[in-house]
Task: structure prediction
Amino acid sequence: MLPLLKMPPLCSRVVRNWAWVVFALMTLISLTSRSLVCATVVCAECRPLSLQEAPGVGLSLAPGYGSVSIRFANGTFSDVALVKGTEAYLRAMKRWQYFVSDHPTAGGKHDSKMSNSSLERLRSWFQWGLPNPAGTLYESLDDSLIPIVEMMRKLYHEANQSVPLTNNNVFLAVPDLQYAMTYETSRHIEPLLQAAGLNGLFYLRQSQLSLLHLYNLDNCYDIWLDEVTWVPDEECEEYHDRNIQSVFSIHLDESSLTLRSMIRDDGLFPYEPGDVQYFWADEGVGQDKLAYWDWLEHSLRGFLHDRDVAYDLLLLSGTQATALDFQQIIQSVLKDHKKIVPRDYLRRPIDHTYAAARGAAQLARVYLCSSSCMSAPWCPTSKHCKKWARHRDDEGAKKIEL
Result:
């Protein structure tokens, strides 16, 4: 009997070379008579109801602060704590940025003519249990990153103080650091989680989790109707009856500014090198407030000028997202972007501050309900765990809750 498989990170099954790509494609072809790769593996054990109904804990590691939110089985949220980053934490985050930006994997930097969205889609087909032929290679924990471990411990402690937790599972929101593939970051995240004594259900970038919470938008995979038929999930790409193909993401806290251009490619928001720019306030302007706002406006204008994209949506996150001076800059810089309006992007300060942590907690609940294998028919399923099915009618293909 097959063992229960732990759900790996979305892109941890990294495509190392073209030989692995060919192997993956051949395996996919051999499975065309099956409905889904994951559905071919039956769990050896039933997932306990206590785990299916446990609170989902979302930890967010922003450049300047940490935050933790909890999502309960009944769908309610609790914003537990915000912990301002110490000087040691800020230095550690800068060090982490250096690691993931400049250090390739042991096999060298990824070099492929395949588009990132194609790679993401290919990895999604095989993330449910096929082994990584290259093995799992994690970095040893660098001492300079210990303050990040301490932040994670503090956040989990705050969550456990708020609601007694029976497991150490967390969903992690990581900064939008400049890396080409999720695997590049997993090599550093796993040692951090282990040092903090936590089990990472999964981890995603803060921009993606904030987008999920504030707009209920995400990567949109095609709907698999049968063995040979795929159709776009058009409903997934809509916000208030508008089809969203481009998002301008801004994270602003007291210590840093992060800008990301999110452009859909075949339904996905691929993470391309150059899509993100990172700015540290202390390296730009120091303590001069007037110079700070000038620096901020200049950074935004430069980023937009280099890309020349008419964005469909603005995504704001961070503790300073609703600052009056910043909002005035936003309106000035984006005045020609007609689709971007305050009624869409402006929420309460707490909503922007905890956006990524809430998104992480939301997905933590999903991962506590499901696993990388198919539950046996006799296994109990919590009423709080949703089941979905795909169907097609006269209006097109849709995902419906069972």
Notes: Residues 232 and 392 are 12 Å apart (CA to CA). Residues 1-40, 103-135 have pLDDT under 50 and may be disordered.
